[in-house]
Amino acid sequence: MIGLSGRGRQTLRLMLIGLWTVICYLVWLPGALLLLPFGRRARQWNELGVRIWSGGLVRAMGIQVEVSGAPPAKPFFLVSNHLSYLDILVLGSRLGPTFISKSELANWPVLGHLARVTGTIFVNRQRKRDALRVIREIDQTVARGGGVVLFPEGTSTRGDRIYPLKSALLEWAAQRGFPVHAASIRYETGLPADPAVQSVCWWGDMAFGPHILRMLTLPRIRATLAFAPAPVVEHQRGALAARLQATLEQIF
Fold it and tell me: How far, in Å, CA of 18 to CA of 13, rounded?
């Protein structure tokens, strides 16, 4: 797509995204319905679907993913910095995990439905007691052999640093002494006029529609995904958050 104009790339990528999403959904849905009574197999089918769908979208959008370090084996609990909606595709294409996401995503057109049917764990940040339900869902996912990804910064950022981690949902790992893996994501465009901080990272009051349309005009995006060499274990969530903060800053 390098030889196309920005508008040409945008149009072609929108077509590819829509076509690939429909194909994946139509293939995934019968298997999901058939395996619904079988918890572990249903999870494995969902994870496979997430990996294949995400991987296809990563290629369609011109994202080149460079990975350093070894991804964790399932079951796992992993935290990552959060820069963009693209983070879900980059991590999804490599890990096929269950994501923990803000409850607002559930109401988004198309993306909200896809997130719900593939098992995303939604958290309502306006209700403090909702963390108890989320912790139970993490328990169930890990017990079935799945992997869980949390963005503990609490929001997507401009990517200039690792922002302070919110520790509430780290309570699950702290209570159990469960190893927590860490990964960092960075983006580059190679274009001074369209730096990643404006055209890839999605933060502040940026509107989603104009942002993704602009992003789809870029010739390419380089995503660097770095996994920490060892997980972190702590029995106090404050200490766990502090060590994970330091780990993310080291690999960012």
Answer: 8
The string of pLDDT tens digits covering residues 132-180 is 888 899 999 999 899 999 999 988 999 999 999 998 889 999 999 999 9
Predicted TM-score (pTM) of this structure: 0.91
Q: What is the dihedral of CA 84, 101, 88, 206, to 10 degrees?
A: -20
How far apart are the C-alpha atoms of 99 and 118, rounded to whole Å? 9
User: Any residues with CB less than 8 A from the CB of 236 and at least 6 apart, and which?
Assistant: 174
Task: State pLDDT tens for residues 172-187.
Answer: 999 999 999 999 999 9
Tokens 């009051």, residue located: 205
In sequence order, what DSSP letters do the residues of 53-103 get, joined into one string? Answer: HHHHHHHHTTEEEEEESPPPPSSEEEEE----THHHHHHHHHH--EEEEEG
Q: Is 180 helix (H, G, I), strand (E, B) or coil?
A: strand
